[in-house]
Amino acid sequence: MSENQVVSKKRVIDHGEVYTASREVNAMLDLVKQETERIDSRFLEPACGTGNFLAEVLKRKLHIVLKRYSKSQVEYERYAVLAISSIYGIDILSDNVAACQNRLFDIFDEQYRTLYTTKVKEECKKTVRFILSKNIVWGDALTLSSATDKNTPIVFSEWSPVNGSMMKRRDFTFAELLQNAEITALPLFSDRGEDVFIPKPIKDFPVTHFLRIADAD
Asked: What pTM value is reported for the model?
């Protein structure tokens, strides 16, 4: 799907769906350049579409991971997963959600396969797919709820590294997170790290190896 493409006039009328061109995306991200190059800095796009903003954020983060950690496959995998786990999106259209998840996965997978060819680990790719399924969600950012059920809140997972290769997951409602975060113009992001995630989680998961988190759901 090309940038600035209008899928249909009906989608524009119903959902205001118009894609932002790469030049404008990068100009906006350059305003917070330091954050886009921080591997663990969390970004949220509440109308992510197919991922024009989030794709550029991920590319910048993975470029840093590549420069710093590519000599060690384990270190690269760990920090690439951390970078991916810091990116969040919401869209009201299910096909956009699927396209965004696939797009972000493909950005990671292309770099991963180029670096390690026959040594790529399926469990690492499974972890990335799983995180994207939790971080890029089908919902209504205005009502803070599921796109299909207004009584079901949007839930996001916080992913925190613990003791090297271990990772901690905690789930929070989007509504609770908004009450405890300073939100700016698009793309939404927090420059305060852990400060965003101060409410009580609705679910707390055991610490798990980052390559096994999909199995601990």
From this structure: 0.84
